[in-house]
Write a structure and sequence with these properties.
Blueprint: E1 29-38, H1 42-54, E2 60-63, E3 79-81, H2 88-94, H3 99-120, E4 131-135, H4 141-153, E5 158-161, H5 163-169, E6 177-181, E7 185-187, H6 190-203, E8 207-209, E9 216-220, E10 223-228, E11 231-240, E12 259-265, H7 271-277, E13 284-287, E14 293-297, E15 303-307, H8 326-339, E16 351-357, E17 374-375, E18 391-392
């Protein structure tokens, strides 16, 4: 990476860079279950938890090819949004007759996630800060204003902020206006959420097998048989939560479009650095450009800064080599300083991220999603005047054709 702020960055997951729970044993031999869940990310974890809550006597087994939460789930931006339609404008355009119902369901879903975290005592830094949608060019202001009436009519608590008001909220040199949706989005740590969900599932009796890749599905009497390298699971029902990876069900594969996007993570900010940017309400932020940025503060006061490039590789391949894209990391670092021109110096660069995303689904969601990420080695004190850290790979789910995360 050529940007000086990234000179000490090395690739490794940021959220995953901590002590992990002990792995569950891989599957060996033949077992049976009422419900088999393929994938240990958010889709699979929420499916298993809800199934056990609805029927405590149900025998549920989760099969994960690697580790719980290791992919998109453990490498996304940590935006947990109420929208089920990839943003309100997208929902209004595509589902005008159903949008009121979809909005109500989305709010109930976010409320339900919050209630679940409280019920099981899952500490994942959940903060219902809301989200700022910001205009970074004059032509985008009208679009923000136009959506206010629709959002309020559908029950959203939104507030329009003019140029002075939005720059008072967050000291960003590029802002022309903004809309604050006050309670439709929460910030959280996605890995702590995933591990907390897995722990809650296990306490209810869900069985987990990590390091167990499903290689095929066959009919077996009135149910299905999942084949793995060292065993089989016969189940009455199967739920597939494989995200951007090729599904074991071949007819699903043409509908999965992996798209990589990348992000940076700073060191924890000092009190002086935080004062220089404002942002006291800790909202998630997304700009209104077609190639947009999304960014947020973490619970240890780093800034995650991502987006802009969205890269589709020929054939829709998902490969380790695509986790890093130095040109995008350099571009993001440049954009960071263009936005925060009042920056008074950032902690030494340490982390960054790249993302891959399937389509369609809701962006940056901490409900079903997919992702990946990387971490950097702390820089020397001599580089303390440099800003965002390296690039950490993370992934959220979104429609490849949509500009919204």
């Amino acid at each position: 990476m050529g940007h000086p702020a990234l000179r000490d960055a090395v690739s490794a997951p940021f959220w995953l860079d901590r002590d992990r729970p002990e792995p569950h044993p891989p599957l060996r031999g033949a077992v049976s279950a009422d419900l088999a869940v393929v994938g240990g990310g958010f889709s699979g974890l929420w499916t298993a938890l809800l199934a056990k809550e609805r029927d405590p006597g149900l025998d549920v087994v989760v099969l994960e090819g690697r580790r719980i939460g290791w992919a998109a789930t453990g490498r996304n931006g940590g935006f947990c949004a109420a929208s089920l339609t990839h943003g309100l404008p997208n929902g209004v355009e595509r589902f005008p007759d159903e949008i009121a119902t979809l909005e109500a369901l989305g709010r109930a879903n976010l409320d339900g996630i919050e209630a679940t975290l409280r019920r099981y005592g899952i500490d994942c830094g959940f903060e219902r800060t809301g989200e700022l949608s910001v205009a970074t060019a004059p032509w985008q202001v009208a679009g923000l204003r136009d959506g206010i009436g629709t959002a309020r009519r559908l029950g959203r608590r939104v507030e329009f902020l003019d140029r002075d008001a939005i720059r008072a909220e967050v000291h960003a040199a590029t802002y022309e206006a903004g809309v604050w949706d006050r309670d439709g989005t929460a910030m959280l740590d996605p890995v702590r959420l995933a591990w907390g969900l897995a722990e809650a599932c296990a306490a209810l009796g869900v069985r987990f097998h990590e390091g167990t890749r499903v290689t095929g599905i066959d009919r077996a009497g009135g149910g299905l048989r999942l084949r793995t390298p060292h065993g089989t699971v016969t189940a009455a029902k199967v739920a597939l939560g494989t995200g951007a990876f090729p599904s074991p069900l071949r007819r699903v594969r043409p509908f999965i479009i992996p798209v990589y996007d990348y992000a940076l993570m700073t060191e924890p900010l000092t009190a002086g650095q935080l004062a220089s940017i404002g942002w006291a309400h800790r909202q998630g932020i997304g700009d209104s450009a077609n190639q947009f940025h999304y960014y947020r503060r973490t619970d240890d006061d780093r800034i995650l800064w991502g987006g802009y490039d969205a890269v589709y590789y020929n054939g829709g391949a998902v490969r380790l080599a695509y986790d890093q894209r130095p040109a995008t990391s350099d571009r993001l670092a440049t954009h960071f300083f263009e936005t925060f021109r009042s920056w008074t110096g950032c902690g030494s660069p340490t982390r960054g991220e790249g993302w891959w995303t399937p389509a369609p689904a809701s962006a940056r969601s901490s409900a079903p999603g997919t992702a990946g990420a990387w971490r950097t080695r702390p820089a020397s004190p001599a580089s303390a005047s440099a800003p965002p850290a390296s690039a950490r790979r993370s992934c959220w789910t979104c429609s490849a054709a949509s500009r919204r995360r």
